[in-house]
Structures are given as structure tokens and as C-alpha cells.
Design a protein that fits this description.
The protein is mostly helical. It is built from eight helices and four strands; from the N terminus they run αβαββαααβααα. It has helices spanning 11-29, 37-51, 74-93, 98-107, 110-131, 139-148, 156-175, 180-193; strands at residues 30-35, 61-63, 69-72, 132-137. A two-stranded antiparallel sheet has the order 1-4. The chain has a two-stranded antiparallel ribbon with strand order 2-3. The radius of gyration is 17 Å and the shape is globular. It starts with 10 loop residues before the first helix and ends with a helix.
């Protein structure tokens, strides 16, 4: 996927960047999916909010006859995942805005960057687990990332979720000028311990 530039250091710019990255990387990797009951419930809430008088919201959500979402605009998923990421990362670092974290990463040593990457991997993994019950993915991308990041675990479910996390984190790391070796090491640590 082509690089998405993020030039700002404020929260709104960075969060918009994350929304865009998440949306595009999931479109790139996921061929089809089944959403969790919780995420389906939240989608129904979004539709109710739109019907209650927020007509300026543009979105595409198609529900099947069973009431489950069958097609969801990637921008909605990107925004949802970004919002949960923002809440969790700010809570983890005990700050009110993500820009405080980003500004620290810019000037700090590799240990701080490593902690940020490891924390972000775990948060994105947990959030994707909350959204997707099942992911049908692009096998070529899956195989490439499984080999590149040494994903030796045979748990296909775990690996099918960690690959889009790595796609997202690659873009974040590039734009925050975090070395790829940090991402590789954090992926190994995260896969070995928490997932």
C-alpha cells in the first residue's frame, strides 16, 4: 500500500491519519468478514442516530435479513477502531490527548518508542478482536507478513488478526520515524506473550 502522509503534530491530524490508515489497510487485507454481536449492536446504534436527525452523516451499512451487518463502509470501521484506540492509548499513558504521546515519541529514545509500539500493537489487536468474529483475508498478504515477521504460531485466527495490525503499525511507525526493527521486535514480544 502507498504511504499515507501525516504532517501534523496535533491530536486531530494524527487521529484522522489513523482513521485513514486503518480504513485503507483493512480494505487492502480483508476480503470478507463476519462482525461480532457487540459491533453489530453499535452499528444499529449508528443507524438510529442518523435517523434521529444527523442527516449530514454519510455512511454505507447494509444489514442482512438476520439483522447482522453484511456490508459496512470502511470509513465507519476506521473511525470506530481509531476512536477505541485513542481512548485506550490515552488511558494507558494517563493523558487526555494523544498528541502528548506523539510529541514524546518524537524526542525520546528507543525504549519509549518500543513501549509505544508494543502498547499500540496490543490495543489494535484487542480492538480488532472486538470488531471481527471471522476474517477472510488476502492469502498472499497473509503469507508475506507471516514470513516477514516470523509468525510461527499455527493459530490462524491469531495470525489473521495480527497481520492487519502490522499493516497499520507499519504506516504509523514510518510516519513517526520509528525504526522497523522496533516493530519487528515488538511483534515478536507481543505474539509470544499476550495473544
Amino acid at each position: 500500500m502507498e504511504k499515507i502522509d501525516y504532517n501534523g503534530k496535533d491530536s486531530a491530524s494524527f487521529l484522522h491519519f489513523i482513521e485513514t490508515v486503518v480504513s485503507r489497510e483493512l480494505e487492502y487485507y480483508i476480503i470478507d468478514s463476519i462482525f461480532t454481536k457487540d459491533f453489530n449492536y453499535r452499528l444499529h446504534q449508528i443507524v438510529r442516530d442518523i435517523k434521529k436527525g444527523k442527516p449530514d452523516i454519510e455512511c454505507s451499512i447494509i444489514f442482512g435479513s438476520d439483522g447482522e451487518a453484511s456490508v459496512v463502509d470502511s470509513n465507519i470501521i476506521g473511525k470506530y477502531i481509531c476512536d477505541l484506540y485513542n481512548v485506550n492509548i490515552c488511558e494507558h499513558y494517563k493523558v487526555d490527548k494523544i498528541e502528548k504521546i506523539i510529541n514524546e515519541i518524537d524526542i525520546e529514545k528507543d525504549e519509549v518508542k518500543t513501549d509505544f509500539v508494543l502498547t499500540s500493537i496490543n490495543i489494535f489487536y484487542d480492538v480488532l478482536e472486538q470488531v471481527y468474529k471471522k476474517i477472510i483475508y488476502n492469502k498472499d498478504i497473509y503469507d508475506k507478513y507471516r514470513e516477514y515477521y516470523y509468525l510461527v504460531d499455527d493459530n490462524i485466527r491469531k495470525n489473521s488478526v495480527i497481520v492487519p495490525v502490522l499493516l497499520i503499525m507499519e504506516d504509523i511507525c514510518k510516519n513517526l520515524k520509528i525504526k522497523n526493527s522496533i516493530l519487528i521486535n515488538c511483534c515478536k514480544k507481543s505474539c509470544d506473550t499476550t495473544m
